[in-house]
Each structure stands twice: as C-alpha cells, then as structure tokens.
Amino acid sequence: MYINIVVVDDDPEFRRIATMLLTARGLRVVAESGDGAECLAAVRAHRPHGLLLDLHLPDLDGLSVARQVAEEDDPPRIVLTSTDESFWSQKELEYAGIERFVAKDKLFDADLRALFAATRP
C-alpha cells in the first residue's frame, strides 16, 4: 500500500526536491501546493495520509493551515518544514495538529517513511 503525501511549499524547487526524496523512499506524492489555499483544496481532493508543510507560505502560515487541516475528518499526519526552527514550542506544534518538525536542511537525512508510517488504513 502506498502512503500518499501532499507537498506544500511556495518554492517550486523545494517542492521538486522534496517530491524526489519522498518518492525515493517509497512514498507517493499525489499533489503539490504553493500556498495554504491550494493545500486545503488538495487535502480535500486527495485525502492524503501525510502532509509535508512549509511554515512560511504566501497567504497563510503553516501553523494556520495545519489547524484547518486538523479539523478535517480523518486528517493526515502533518510534518512541518522550515529553515527557521527557533520560534515555536512543541506544545504550539501539537496544538496545531503537527506531529513532527524537520528542518529543510535535515530533510535529506530524515527517515521520511517513518515520519508518515503511522497512517490511516
């Protein structure tokens, strides 16, 4: 069974790299989004198991997007990414429905499959 992921980042080059990394680890990227509104539409359309979500988006910040996604029926696992990891607490992430944070420069070394493995059937 595939684990379906939506990649959300306003940088198309980062989306391309993240998609390559996820695919190389046996995950399937079903959609890419460049902003929060596109992300919400993609989550509703594709019902992914996981969401790789950038903190800084042009319309909404990643925490706001995560809170809205967490309100969906059977929400996906959310992994937040950013180059800035210093201004929020673990409690703030959990409140937003974010399970994990991975700095963008650590994404290559992260066990991406394990981050999204505990998914709905």
Automatic annotation (TrEMBL):
Record keyword RNA-binding present: no
Q: Which UniProt keywords apply?
A: Phosphoprotein
Any one Gene Ontology BP term: phosphorelay signal transduction system
Q: Does the keyword Phosphoprotein apply?
A: yes
Superkingdom of source: Bacteria
Q: Which residues carry this modification: 4-aspartylphosphate?
A: D54
Domain named Response regulatory: residues: 4-119
Query: Pfam family of this protein, just one?
Result: Response_reg
SUPFAM superfamilies listed in its UniProt record: CheY-like
Please state what the protein is called. Answer: CheY-like chemotaxis protein
